[in-house]
Amino acid sequence: MSNDDTKDMVETVDVSPRDPDLPQVPGGDVFRQLLHQAVRVADMANSQAMRMALDFAKVYEREQGVRAQFENQLKQMTLMEKQATRYAEDLAGMLRSERERRQELERALEQERIASEELRRTGLQGISHLLLAATIKDRTTGTHLQRVRRYVEAIALVEEFGYSSVMHDVGKIHTPDHILQSEHHLSDAEFSVIKQHCIDGEKMLGTARFFETARAIAREHHERWDGKGYPDGKKGEEISLAARIVSIADVFDALTSKRPYKEAWSAEAGLKAIEAGAGERFDPELVAGFVALAREGVLERISSEVAASSDDEQLGSSAK
């Protein structure tokens, strides 16, 4: 029974005419009251049910929205996961490629190292042969080259400068012996010939990278700090560091060695000449370092060791 039917029934009961001749039934009012209460309770129950239904509909709608939002986020997360997987795969591929390139580079570097070492050995053998040839031709020249090398290494603390210095006068192979061994001061024409050994030496050393420092030394070791040297008139730091060092060592040893045209100077006199040339002929900072080595006895020790080595070689040759 609906609410409307119940109300109609109650109203019918309320408005029905009463027969005055009929006796009043006890409890009639109570029944109507109970019926009214039942109707009110039913109305309240229906209203509450409607509210609950509306609330449920709202909750359901909200939950559907949350579900749709969650599903959308889930799709986005799935897409992001796929993208991350692709990125990870791409990154892994890049890392593999990079690792392969690195391995190739390491192999290339190792090959370069081996080639450089082989080139170095070949170059050092060539230097040794030149030194041997110079020593055979003139033992004085051989010991001079050895002392110069040791002096240079003591100043520079660079092995490359030392073994490259051995070739500073290699161009003199083209210089006539009568000029090299002359016991008088050279004429202008003879001096022009001997100056050519700087250029000849650079050319003789070719273009190999191993001899790059040696070429600079061969060409520049007669340049001067003040720019008055030869063959190019370079000055100051325009002259390579190796050549500036060799210049000091070469002149000092030439002064303190016996030559066809002069007697050997004392080490002290040679050192004073080097000091006097600081700022004019020689790099003043390098001169200060060279003088310090002399004061420490390094130059004297080197000269003694080279002399002893030369004597041993000479004794060995005589024994044979």
Report on this structure.
The protein contains eleven helices and no strands. It is mainly α and 320 residues long. It folds into two domains: 100 residues; 169 residues, Hypothetical protein af1432 (Orthogonal Bundle).
The CATH superfamily label of the largest domain reads Hypothetical protein af1432
For the record, the count of structural domains works out to 2
**How many strand units?**
0
CATH architecture descriptor name of the largest domain? Orthogonal Bundle
Provide a brief overview of the structure:
By secondary structure, this protein is mainly alpha-helical. The protein has eleven helices and no strands. It has helices spanning 3-15, 28-137, 139-156, 159-165, 177-180, 188-204, 212-220, 241-255, 267-276, 284-295, 298-319.
